[in-house]
Specification:
- The chain is mainly alpha-helical.
- It folds into two domains: 97 residues, Zinc finger, CHC2-typedomain (DNA Primase, Chain A); 62 residues.
- 61% of the residues lie in helices and 5% in strands.
- The chain has a four-stranded antiparallel sheet with strand order 1-2-3-4, with helices on one face.
- Strand 2 and strand 3 form a beta hairpin.
- Helix 1 packs across helix 4 and helix 3 packs across helix 4.
- The radius of gyration is 25 Å and the shape is elongated.
């Protein structure tokens, strides 16, 4: 196996299409979708896969691995794409000689850190969504208590009614804030 095929294997196992798109500056959502840069799409019609599975556009049918993504995006050759990927992700590849095992380990550790950061961001979004649902449930419950315990005659004040009326504005504000956090698109 020559050094270029070793480099290709290291790149494909160390860098995902999501990593490349984010390094280029594309806005990738939490589902791995972005606007296709190859046909200047405005909708999120390109799916970027994690690991070494590459990318695929549902409109222009552009697809391939991370190397072909870089080649097509920058209109460069195969070896130039390898050099770009090596430099951008600090993989430590010597494209004219041997691959340094220590630098390869560092690249694998960097990949693991990127994966953990992405997983943490996804976990955070799930937790925010859970908080938003809980806050919406609190709003619904406060409204139910307010309506059930509303005074029917003058002077008939139920403590549950008063608590629901006092809690409701804060619960609504918290629910709105959590929903806005969930809907924010990662820039």
């Amino acid at each position: 196996m020559n050094n270029l095929s070793l480099a290709v294997d290291v790149i494909k196992n160390s860098v995902s299409a999501i990593d490349v798109a984010q390094a280029i500056g594309l806005n990738v959502d939490m589902h791995g979708r972005c606007s296709c840069p190859f046909h200047n799409g405005k909708d999120r019609n390109m799916k970027l896969f994690d690991g070494n599975r590459g990318y695929s556009c549902f409109v222009c049918h552009a697809s391939g691995d991370v190397i072909s993504f870089v080649r097509q995006y920058y209109s460069i050759g195969f070896k130039d794409a390898l050099v770009w990927l090596d430099g951008t992700f600090r993989l430590g590849l010597d494209l004219d000689g041997q691959i340094d095992a220590d630098k390869q380990r560092q690249a694998e550790m960097a990949l693991q850190r990127r994966k953990r950061a992405r997983e943490l961001a996804e976990w955070k979004k799930r937790m925010q969504f859970g908080l938003a649902l809980t806050a919406m449930d609190l709003v619904r419950r406060c409204e139910e208590v307010r309506d059930e315990k509303r005074p029917r005659t003058y002077g008939e004040w139920d403590p549950g009614f008063c608590e629901a009326v006092v809690t409701l504005p804060d619960a609504r504000q918290f629910a709105d804030d959590m929903m806005m956090e969930c809907m924010e698109v990662k820039e």
